[in-house]
Amino acid sequence: MDLTQRVSAGGLLAPGRPVVVLLSGGRDSVCLLDLAVRIAGAEAVTALHCEYGLRAASADDAAHCAALCERLGAAFELRRPRRPARAGNLQAWARDARYAAAAELADGGDVAAGHTATDQVETVLYRLAASPGRRALLGMHAREGALVRPLLEITREETAAHCEARGLAWREDASNASPEFARNRLRAGLLPALRELHPAAEANVLRTLALLRDEAAVLDAAVATALHRAGDPPAAAVLAALPPALARLAVQALADEAAGGLAPAVGHRTAEVLALREGGALDVGGGLRATVRGGALRFVASAGPAAPRPPASA
User: Fold this and answer.
1) Closest CA to 236 of 181, 277, 268, 189
2) Given phi > 0 = left and psi -120 to 50 = alpha, else beta, which region is 28?
3) Which CATH architecture has domain 3-194?
4) From CA 136, how far away is CA 128, in angstroms rounded?
5) Residue pLDDT tens, the chain, 314 long
6) Is the preceding peptide bond at 233 cis, omega within 30 degrees of 0?
């Protein structure tokens, strides 16, 4: 089965289904655009390229992407976001700007990113080092709302081979080799070291990820049952009586629900949260506050100083 058949079988790209492809000009996004055109049809595909103006070669990258879209028959959209003062982390700002522009173009439809199995391994290893908790080991999902990752089971070597076989040139971003960024240091240092330890290191990480995802479904069901038994809203005393691991997962699930998605990891503060007395509150980060009112535990938006214990008159 060739790459087109494998990606088509995944169902994330389908004939006639509109999709906005995030096109950087690198090998993975070039491969993704070609596959999207071959599977969905050129009339259903729009390619978005963001020229941030941060590198001397950025104008050439944009021209390359425009020429590629003309060759493949896909619509081309160029955006030029400019980083505002005090925008914080450069990569995070660029990602947010790119996804915001893509969501606007897609207008409720799908947005496709060229993340590969190789990116998945890097993501898991980076999260494992940077943040505690099992969520770090679950990696990226093939679909997250409107965002789809059709290449998530395809390696970077396979995307390069596809481009070469199809005669599709790509651009190399020199910043991808810069040690300034942690992800690049991981790619240049840790992954080669793991391959030296075992040639199947990356494949083993991916197999472990698949197993953890299966087990996560079982854990999620157990958490849902525990929260149902605790009531709506859940009684803090009932949650405190759960086995520690289950209580930790339940508290995280409540925080995620309050955040409308994935909240920052709060499980390590479970003991503090469940030790709150009536009327108490605790800021747990990420703009969230745990409160106990009427015996029930809730997560709400932080506003003003939290009161870890009730007033003396209470």
Assistant:
1) 277
2) alpha
3) 3-Layer(aba) Sandwich (3.40)
4) 5
5) 799 999 999 999 999 999 999 999 999 999 999 999 999 999 999 999 999 877 777 889 999 999 999 999 999 999 998 888 776 777 788 898 999 999 999 998 999 999 999 999 999 998 888 877 777 788 899 999 999 999 999 999 999 999 999 999 999 877 777 777 788 888 888 889 999 999 999 999 999 999 998 999 999 999 999 999 999 999 999 999 999 999 999 999 999 999 988 888 888 899 999 999 999 999 998 899 999 999 999 999 987 666 555 444 43
6) yes
CATH 3.40.50 fits 203-301, yes or no: no
The span from the first CA to the last CA of the chain, in angstroms, equals 69
| Beta carbons within 8 Å of 279's beta carbon, 6+ residues apart | 292, 293, 307, 309, 310, 311, 314
The values of phi and psi at residue 26, to 5°, are -75, 170
Q: What are the residue boundaries of the structural domains of the chain, listed by start?
A: 3-194, 203-301
CB-based contacts of 310, cutoff 8 Å, min separation 6: 277, 278, 279, 280
Residue pointed to by tokens 């058949």: 5
198 exposure class (CB count in 10 Å sphere: 0-12, 13-18, 19+): exposed
What is the dihedral sign for C-alpha 190, 174, 30, 43?
positive
CA–CA dist 220, 253 (Å, integer): 9
Distance, in Å, from the CA atom of 82 to the CA atom of 222, rounded to the nearest integer, reads 46
Q: Which two tokens stand for residue 152?
A: 């998530």
Task: Say what the pTM is.
Answer: 0.81
